[in-house]
């Protein structure tokens, strides 16, 4: 009996991972997080070396790596939450390792960021677009600042980190106030880094090119032809009169 052409084979159910496979998967994520932590520390140091020349670009590489770290840490936490009960002993140890990595990255980010912007706020010449770039970094700092409200950061160290994070927010706003935002050339309003609505410079349809129409040529005045040269008819008597006059 032949199977109908339009009948699809049912998808096979996903194969459940064994505890050993889950353990290897989580361990791989933790090793990746540890490598990202070390790389972020090196990038934070590089951003503080020459702040005035390309410092903001190097800092943004550092902050981007930090955001990638926390995104991957959230994936690792999901894997730990979904682990079976027979991995309870391993789950506790891996959760402790993940919390330590998370805490170390928060410390690296806060200390590296406050050191960078304390120097960057004194830079005389800011690059074009610094207002917008610092606005992006400001939102990232505010999101990471929320981590410090966790009971994991209770105690004197947590209080110091929260104070440094609040100082970072103030330093970034000082930099943003020093340089105006770029003009908005779009056709619709945009939201600035502080939440302000920026009106576009152009109205709707201002940037749409108009169809090329037939150009109306101005009436041209016909050019007048130059008058023909004067031709006189001469006779023999006229030549004789001219000779008599000369004589």
Structure description:
The protein has 247 residues and is mainly α. The chain has one domain (19-195). It has helices at residues 19-49, 55-81, 88-120, 130-145, 156-178, 236-246, and strands at residues 190-191, 197-198. Helix 1 (19-49) runs antiparallel to helix 2 (55-81). The chain is elongated. Residues 1-22, 184-247 are annotated as: Disordered. Residues 207-223 have a biased composition (Low complexity).
What would the keywords be for this entry?
mainly alpha, two-stranded antiparallel ribbon, 6 helices, 57% helix, elongated
> How far apart are the first and last residues' alpha carbons, in Å?
137 Å
| Number of beta-strand segments | 2
- Give the number of helices: 6
What pattern of helices and strands is seen along the backbone? HHHHHEEH
Biased composition (Low complexity): 207-223
Region (Disordered): 1-22, 184-247
Present the secondary structure layout:
Blueprint: H1 19-49, H2 55-81, H3 88-120, H4 130-145, H5 156-178, E1 190-191, E2 197-198, H6 236-246
Antiparallel strand pairs: 1-2
Helix pairs in contact: 1-2, 1-3, 2-3, 2-4, 3-5, 4-5
Gist of the model:
By secondary structure, this protein is mainly alpha-helical. The protein has one domain. The chain is built from six helices and two strands.
